[in-house]
Structures are given as C-alpha cells and as structure tokens.
Amino acid sequence: MSATATESGVAVRAAVEEVLARYALGYDEGDLELLADCFTADAELSMRVADDAVAGPVRGRDAIVELVRETARSQRDRRKHVLSNLVLDHAGDRARARTYLTLFAVADGALRAITTGRYLAELRADSGEWRIAALRIELDLPFS
Fold first, then answer.
1. Where does the pLDDT of residue 4 fall: very low under 50, low under 70, confident under 90, or very high at 90 and above?
2. Per-residue DSSP letters for 66-114?
3. Which site from 53, 58, 84, 98 is most exposed, i.e. has the minimal number of CB atoms within 10 Å?
C-alpha cells in the first residue's frame, strides 16, 4: 500500500499489518528479497531475550538481511512467526506499532511453541511505501 501524509487510520493500519506480515513471511519462507523490502535502508534491529541485555542494534537493511540469513541457516526446523494484537499510533508519515509474537517450529513431524514475545516497530513512509525503520524484538523465553 502506498503511503501519504493524509492516509486514513484504517489505510495506515492495513499497510502496517501488511509490512509486518511480509517481514514474518519473508523470514519463514526464506524470501530475503521480500524481507529486505520491509525495511528502510537505514533500519535498525535489536533483540532482548527474557531479562538479558539487549543485543544490537544491527544497523542497515543489508546487515539485517544478513543476520536473518545466518540465523535461518542455523535452524533445523521450519519456523512460523504469528503476529497478533496490533496496537498502532501514527502521525503523518511516521507510525509506531506494538504486536505480540508467537513463534512455532515444525520438525520431525511435530509442532511446538518455541517462545512468545512482542515486536516494537517504528515505521515510516519511504518511497511511497510503509517500511520498518526500527524493530525491537522482545522474547519471553530463550530458544534454540
């Protein structure tokens, strides 16, 4: 969805839901082009697991894509990132989104819940599209 400063709240919400879903789908399906298109060129990503220190930030779209590539290579299961309970605030070409994450894995014919958490995303209209400018991932439990 294209972004303009006059978009309605409904249109912005739909665009933000779309970009977050595309991020999750890009990660889960190994579609790094799809994932890369979700971020601004100068995006930042950081993560906190349980009560540990914050890891990151990883700065720049290319560095974020490389981090996802390396992380996915180390996983021996198929991941499914499920996002829910989106709360959105926006003004003009900027938005902040909070959403829950439930992370599942499928391996050896079994499904298991790996962890839960939340995404805190700052988004902005970039070249006519809403993109993630900063993503902080907060996980409730460590996982492998």
1. very low
2. HHHHHHHHH--SEEEEEEEEEEEEEETTEEEEEEEEEEEEEETTEEEEE
3. 53
